[in-house]
Amino acid sequence: MFQPNKKSTFQAANLKEIALKVTVPSELLQFLIEKFPEKSRTAIKSLLAHKQITVDDMVTTKFDHPLKRGQMVFLNKKRSDEKPRFRGLRIVHEDADVIVIDKASGMLSMASETEKQKTAYSILSEYVKRFNPRNLIFIVHRLDRDTSGLMMFAKSKRIQEILQTDWNNAIIERSYIAVVEGCVETPEGKVTSWLRENKAMVMYSSQTPDDGQKAITHYKVLKSNKLFSMLDVKLETGRKNQIRVHMKDIGFPVTGDKKYGGKLNPIGQMGLHARVLAFKHPVTGKALRFETPIPGKFLKLFKMSN
After folding, report:
1. Which of the residues 144, 146, 249, 257 is marked catalytic?
2. Which of 43, 64, 192, 221 supports an S-S bond with 39, CB 3.0-4.6 Å?
3. 126-136 b/e with 16+ CB inside 10 Å = b?
4. What is the pLDDT of residues 118-137, one digit of tens each?
């Protein structure tokens, strides 16, 4: 079983003016109350709210953040800056081990041999190096360029390997919003097939057992009209282009997805959004869940029909 280092190698750039070492496991608020008896509980909560408390290397605002022996807690007398803003992505969560982002449609997760444009990976790499030039970022899973929504990166090779090696157990929930072409009349369903990639790098589906990687997709209809349906899609497996292929298989391709049978593009992007990402933290084991709103462009297709 993986045992985390007592001290992280990820270094923050915040000015840390008071440093305190944790000698006994505790929750952060109780620890601060004991170390600063002259401060009221309200004053300490204000420090947390204004991002003036750092545990080891990351700012935290949670009063119940668990502390382990050997960790360092810093009081930053200057208020920490808000999370930085980037064109094409937003940081949803960050700690010493992982970063979760909300990626816009049109941005590559990572550069390919033929395309070297700005990617989520390159933006986050530049971001972590602001704190320490030796800091690195590691991709854990990918979203297609035209798919928006939540994805996760690791801050060390070891964390990446832990997540990827035990991916099925680490991931609690991955769900997407898919806008597909046509009116899906079955309220919910399940698609199972075996996926394989051809020489043209197009995934295709087979009903022959073990003819490729087994893929299972569950879907539920949220909204529909004569032209489109909005589905809540949950992945039981995470294969390349899985949702796109399975929607084509059942005769309702994702809108805007020309590669897999889409004929329309009413929103100027592919109708696929990674809405929910829930996982067990690779170090603490704590369950974390993140959810983003359904894109307004998706919803507009159904408001127009009312």
Report:
1. 144
2. 43
3. ebbeeeeeebb
4. 899 999 999 888 777 888 99
